[in-house]
């Protein structure tokens, strides 16, 4: 299991940031992702593997007026 924004989420071998965002239906254009408090740049989402027990935080940036 991993934690995503403080909630339990099933872990599986080969899980990366791109796959996790798709599983969670996080399709926001402006999103910040951290794994164990380490910032992951968008260009590294495919390569950023998530390990069993990791803590993932997502922050959705929104603008308004």
From TrEMBL:
InterPro entries: Beta-grasp_dom_sf, Mopterin_synth/thiamin_S_b, Thi_S, ThiS/MoaD-like. It holds the Pfam family ThiS. Signal peptide: none annotated. This is Sulfur carrier protein ThiS. It comes from candidate division TA06 bacterium. The lineage of its organism: Bacteria, Bacteria division TA06.
